[in-house]
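Q: Please design a sequence for this.
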């Protein structure tokens, strides 16, 4: 036979995808193993672990005045499970203890996103970013904006948690009426946010990897074992099945996430001839790497935060059982039903396109190419180049958005399969293997590991250890 049957084309392609993902995963593990042989890099890794231990200690220091009984009622409230899960994810596990770090780094992330969206809209900010040292100024403004965002999140989080308690008692008795207690709590939680951001910056500067991402990563990893234990204990009859499904999710999804995250579309770039003295040189051809998924997990976080907000608001008004608003609250709050997963998929897909457009637009690739004398073969410099890059970006972003959307609804897919296999069992977050890490958690964990090991490789190569993988 001289050709392969089309029926085998898709399985072969899927096998090749998984094989490539496993190869990259094995490459990273070898890089991590060999990095421990270098004292300087080993110290960076140990410093990063030390900072994470400090952060985990902070997540167990509760805010003054917290009513533990009221807090437990919120954590056990299924209508608030999604909302609390998002906050707990971004706080590194601090929300479940309502600690001084309960805000986590989310106010800082929100401030960063706000500035990324405002820079292409406000000419003054765009001019600041272009000038020498402009990026540092934008970073400083982000810190300043994170403070009021932390204050607002503290007020909102305490108010929503108090409304979601099933005991009828507020999460912090006396908050709002006692001025001293109110100011103490707000200042403490705001200071906790800035302390978490400072720890993240320490990791970025003196440790290894992106500090903010690693703090979120540590929270996911810290809560994963307890989630797995709860999964296996929730239903003894399904324990083996749940464990097998959880392992399959890791074995299949992690290589696919690595493959998609590392996937790039290379746009060839050429530069004109340059005259230096009596010599005329032709610059070598280069390329612009456009990532299939340039936005990471941010669209997932956006979509999950927004889609759960209506359930929280409706829950405050306690709608009657059987009403339209009650059904919405049950669907969106409990993360169940075709409506919830359909809306979640569409929102994740749309946010991915929007945020990718904003990010690529901020890079101003066409303008930079024209200023450096470069051009894309067959494309006129200037506006035509910008339109071409935008068109290619949107085409490859379609794949990335589809990928993020599928990862987002992975718990729903697993829940649907469980409903078919076990029709008499009640499907919820407790007995769904996909909720041990969740789609967002899988992408965050894998992305942070990839980024950290990539920095490991750069550190080793910089020290002339090109053969460290041998």
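A: Design:
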């Amino acid at each position: 036979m001289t050709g392969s049957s089309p029926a085998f084309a898709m399985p072969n392609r899927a096998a090749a995808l998984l094989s490539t993902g496993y190869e990259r995963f094995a490459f990273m593990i070898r890089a991590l193993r060999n990095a421990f042989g270098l004292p300087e890099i080993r110290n960076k890794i140990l410093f990063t672990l030390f900072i994470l231990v400090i952060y985990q200690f902070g997540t167990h220091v509760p805010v003054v005045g917290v009513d533990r009984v009221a807090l437990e009622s919120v954590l056990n409230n299924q209508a608030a499970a999604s909302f609390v899960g998002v906050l707990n994810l971004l706080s590194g596990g601090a929300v479940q203890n309502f600690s001084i770090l309960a805000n986590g780094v989310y106010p800082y992330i929100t401030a960063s996103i706000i500035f990324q969206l405002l820079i292409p809209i406000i000419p003054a900010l765009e001019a600041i970013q272009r000038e020498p040292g402009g990026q540092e100024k934008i970073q400083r403004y982000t810190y300043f904006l994170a403070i009021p965002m932390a204050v607002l999140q503290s007020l909102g989080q305490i108010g929503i948690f108090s409304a979601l308690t099933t005991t009828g008692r507020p999460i912090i008795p006396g908050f709002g009426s006692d001025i001293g207690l109110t100011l103490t709590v707000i200042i403490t939680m705001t200071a906790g946010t800035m302390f978490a951001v400072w720890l993240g910056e320490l990791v970025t500067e003196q440790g290894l990897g992106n500090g903010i991402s690693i703090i979120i990563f540590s929270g996911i990893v810290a809560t994963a074992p307890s989630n797995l234990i709860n999964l296996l204990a929730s239903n003894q009859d399904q324990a083996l099945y749940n464990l097998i499904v959880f392992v399959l999710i890791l074995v299949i999804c992690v290589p696919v996430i690595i493959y998609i995250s590392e996937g790039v579309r290379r746009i060839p770039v050429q530069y004109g001839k340059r005259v230096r003295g009596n010599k005329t040189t032709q610059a070598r051809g280069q390329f612009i790497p456009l990532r299939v998924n340039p936005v990471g997990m941010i669209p997932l976080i956006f979509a999950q935060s927004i889609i759960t907000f209506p359930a929280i608001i409706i829950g405050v008004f306690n709608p009657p059982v059987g009403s339209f608003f009650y059904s919405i609250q049950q669907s969106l709050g409990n993360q169940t039903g075709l409506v919830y997963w359909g809306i979640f998929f569409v929102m994740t897909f749309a946010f991915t396109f929007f945020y990718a457009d904003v990010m690529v637009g901020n890079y101003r690739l066409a303008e930079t190419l024209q200023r450096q004398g470069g051009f894309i073969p067959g494309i006129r410099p200037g506006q035509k180049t910008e339109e071409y890059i935008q068109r290619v970006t949107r085409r490859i972003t379609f794949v990335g958005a589809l990928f993020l959307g599928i990862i987002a609804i992975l718990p729903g897919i697993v829940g649907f399969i469980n409903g078919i296999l076990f029709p008499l069992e009640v499907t919820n977050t407790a007995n769904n293997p996909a909720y041990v890490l969740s789609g967002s958690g899988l992408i965050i964990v894998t992305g942070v590991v990839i980024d950290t090991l990539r920095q490991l490789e750069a550190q080793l190569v910089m020290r002339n250890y090109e053969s460290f993988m041998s």
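Q: Thanks. Anything notable?
A: Residues 134-164 form the longest helix (31 residues). Residues 1-10, 465-470 have pLDDT under 50 and may be disordered.
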